Amino acid sequence: MNGSVILHGRTVVPGRVEGEALVSHEPISGWGGIDPARGVIIERRHELYGVCFTGKILVFPSAKGSSGWAGFFQTTRLSGTAPIGMIIGRLSAKSALGAVVTRVPAITDLDADPCAVIATGDWVLLGNSTVEVTKQ
Amino acid sequence: MFLTDDEKRMRDGAEGDAVAAAMDLLIRYGAALDAPRLCDIRNVAGTMTQPSPVKARLVAEGGWDKAFAVINLDSDADLTIPPMRVPTCQLQHGFGPDSVDIVPYPRANVDLQSDAESFYGRHGVNILATCTPYQVGNLPLRGEHCAWMESSAVIYANSVLGARTNCEGIASTGAASLTGKVPCCGNHLEENRLGTHLVSVSGIHVESFQDWGMLGYFAGGIAGEDHPVIVGDISRPDLTELKHFGAAAATSGGVELYHIPGITPEAPTLEAAFGPGAAVPEAVVYGPAERRAMYETLNEIGSSPDVDFVLLGCPHASVDQIRQAAALLDGKRLSPGTELWIMAPRALKVMADRSGYTEVIERAGGRVLADSCPAMSRAAPAGTKVFATDSAKQAHYLPAILGIEAWFGTLEECVSAAVTGRWNGDLR
To answer: What is the domain range of residue B119?
Structure first.
């Protein structure tokens, strides 16, 4: 399906970025969930087990698990393996701090469920409290 | 976000560059959270001393001041870190010098951490070195605003103690330690602390340590990041059972607060748990089928019955848990190919040593270890392929972190596996 969809939300970290979406329908763990050295999801039960998020706009419903979440994503920035943006279904302290210290544009509180509207591989433009999705 | 005059002065550098950087992070974080203001706290539980490759590189570049600036304040500036402004403790971190001959863990990490402890000790950080600060003297009061991280400690502080903290991170606790401030939203506000989901135990009786862990794992899956309320056929839990329950609920979901009417302090009644006049949601039943499903999920990574390694004390063991393990190990001898470690806060290990429990455990071939755990330090006995634990949290995480198989069972089954080298667990 081709076409474009625009979602409106609330800015978590200001900035503008575009790139390919990587969509997780399950919450993401930081500590014990990702390997920051490689930028890869390592939780065995996870739908994205073994998938690399480096350079992608990471779309996920929420952060779960340990409070090391933000520290692990900060380490992806310091290791050059970070995602380039975050679209967060439901924000919490963990994912808010995570987006801040990863220092990538991030958005939440969208007017539609981003994990349902956006598919992995879609081209996404994130900025100005909006998300423009070009379906692939 | 509204700032008081004092907070603006900190932001503008009146208290030095490091405090200004801390306030800058809190302002960015508060904006991300859409928090209306900051609140005053005087109890921080964070992490500064835990070794990591990135931290080692930063310390080599610019010392501990640099490491704290980058990791704990998210600042690229060259800062001199002042003493902590409010009481601050270090949570669990890496293994220490007394574990060098036991745990395969890089000596460079041990040395880096020892160096960190002396730096942060001089800056007023209490090195509690445990995921359970509430077991060793950091026991916040009901209603006390805190800035804690460690998901199992956060859920315990909010739910069992009635203190108020969000699930903070390394940078927000770092900024809180230098300012005594944290964004005032989420769990800090009375109106956000009510129950959201009702879990009713029915057809089984939840009484054992194992059952409380499985119930927590279930409640986390049901409630996600919300607030489960537990009712039904449950016994009156003790500290260790709620420690296990909360750690499990924070692992399968992102639960930071739960209520058990008649047991936890903010829910004297079911009505109080959901708020006066509020509708009580329809109950999700936790019965024999759900219990069986939790057991099977926690054991789905296990296939080989040959157990190399038994891990107890997640979250860190109480003295009584160490005593129970000692009683089961008394006069026994571990299987030659199997190791058993019990993780504990150092202060409680001292009590276990003094009570003779450590000696009994060591005579059997087991160890009581402090400060850390295999998951934090990514370290298990050399060659471990299959481990067994009585902790739902550790059974969930360690296979991903170390690439090993996991068995989850009771303390008795774990000790039996350590003695025989074979897993013989079953849901009873």
So the answer is: 5-189
